[in-house]
Amino acid sequence: MCGITGIVTRNSDNIGELLVRCSSKLTYRGYDSVGVAAVRDGIVDLRKDVGTIEDVDRLLGLSKMKGDRGIAQLRWATYGAPNKINAQPHFGCEEVFFGAHNGNIHNYVEYRRQLIETGHTIRSENDGELCVHAVDKYYEQTGDMLEAVRLSTHDLKGAFAFAVGRSDKEEIYAVKMGSTLVAGIAENATIVSSDLPSILPLTNRILYLADGEMLSLTHDEVKVFRIEDGKQLERKPEISKIDARAAEKGGFPHFMLKEINEQPKVVQDLMGVLEGQENEKWFSLFEDASRHYLVACGSSYNASIVGTYYFNRLAGLPIIHALGGQFEPMYGNTMDSDSLSILVSQSGETKDILNVLNMVYENDYGKTLGIVNVIGSTLMFKANSYVPMTCGYEISVPATKTYYSQAVIFAYLSAKLGERNGHLDPSEAASLINRLRTDLPRLTQTTIDRTGILAKNLAKTLTNVKDLYCLGYGFTDGVAKEGALKIKEICYNHCEGMYSSEFKHGPLSIVTDKYPVIFVTTTEDSWMVINHINEVKARSGRTIIVGEMEDTLLPYVANKDDYLAVPKSDILLNPILDVIPLQLLSYFLSVDIGINPDLPRNLSKTLTVD
Ligand code: M6R
User: Fold this and answer.
1) Are 5 and 22 contacting, i.e. CB atoms less than 8 angstroms apart?
2) Rg (CA), the chain
3) Catalytic one among 25, 169, 401, 605?
4) With 445 labelled, which of 64, 239, 300, 585 sits at a CA distance of 20 to 30 A?
5) Is the pLDDT of residue 383 over 80?
């Protein structure tokens, strides 16, 4: 997944500066390579190379480029290695057409061959180049830029968006076919981008687009067209209330640390929305369904594991949880029109999740409920209803506050459903919701303050460790998996997250003297976890504990920093709080190792590809 930004401006002095400033807000979408194409006096200046936007700007002077229109692209490599030739934007056959895409062109191999056979000069192994050539091809036939852009979508198969221009045309054109794209209208400039953060530095007047739509931008106008028949559509800009400063670090050294520290505020805002919003629709979706599936990827999946425990315990509801990519082959044939698919995604754009969404609708497999953070995302629009995570921007590639928000949402929904179906006493439901609203913000802050120092010290003792386990039991199953994912993702360590009672069924053989195993526990399950701790201790392993301070657990840690103790709460808040020390541990470890936790290698925040 990549980020594209196209700008047309009246002032031709600073197109490079504008493109660099705006597109740098999309760094979370890709940082393998960067390029800018700008048109000045009918000549296209295209500069690109491998590295982050800061690196490439320093190297090639991107922000000094002049012109009245241009396109920038930040790449996360899928088709073609992350090298200079595959970096975007690309030219068409001559240095006349230029453009860049986001997403995947699925018929890449056949279409590339066809283009070459018909005389096109293809320089890279990157599928984005084909978008420019497709427009080039149809411009040859029609001599009309808008029509060429429209017809190009007939040839290109996949989920993508692209922006394209021609050296002698004053417009930039863009297409949305399954990947995100938004536009903005500023004073004397217009902008199109893969995501809002890069538009907000210029304007808050936003045009939202649907799939199957295309745009033409001049410095003072954005026109929207339907791709199917080329008809121009009426589209009024909406005023975005999102503060552009939300995409700044706000004094923290990394977005990840900022986002961890935002969690007390997240729960306050979230509870306000959950309780204040008209949410009858969410509950009817659950109650009208005879089968419930919970589908997510990565951190959202780990939170969904925790959710499954909440639904069982508080609402007596059997929920089948699965990874996005695993879902259809594993459960597709068990679905019918009475099913409810609960699709959880921070971005609301993860392809594995949208595949499930589309599969449900194509087969008439019932209804969908999205749990989603990004307002305006495909999941938000297409699901029958959605629960907002209310986290604001999560910029850092490792998910933190959105995982936390998802866990709170599951606790809340389960308590309400349990109360409604009689599984949970109304006073217990009310008490939990009250604790989420009044106690959790304070307990979250205390957890950050208290375990931050311990995690920082503990991280220093783990910098040479390349291999470890993170185990959970019951409610902390998903928490341990999430902790392990964080350590893998931003510390480049092998850290396996698994169910603690499974450890003895094979992995225990890895334990030798001081081999580190992290145990995450609730107070209710610590008696059982002690058995699993003993199995490791008996083999001289090093046990690290995450959970409330308990006298029975204390003898199992060699020193105080090996016990990341969260404040006293209860079994239902433990799985929400226990993740925080693991987020902090992975953060400090990553920084100590010398990695930028916000931009771990090979990754992208939003995965719009299969
Ligand atoms: O946007 P989504 O919640 O659908 O993203 C799912 C995963 O790609 C994401 O959680 C990923 O695992 C995180 N980078 C983990 O920190």
Assistant:
1) yes
2) 25
3) 605
4) 300
5) yes
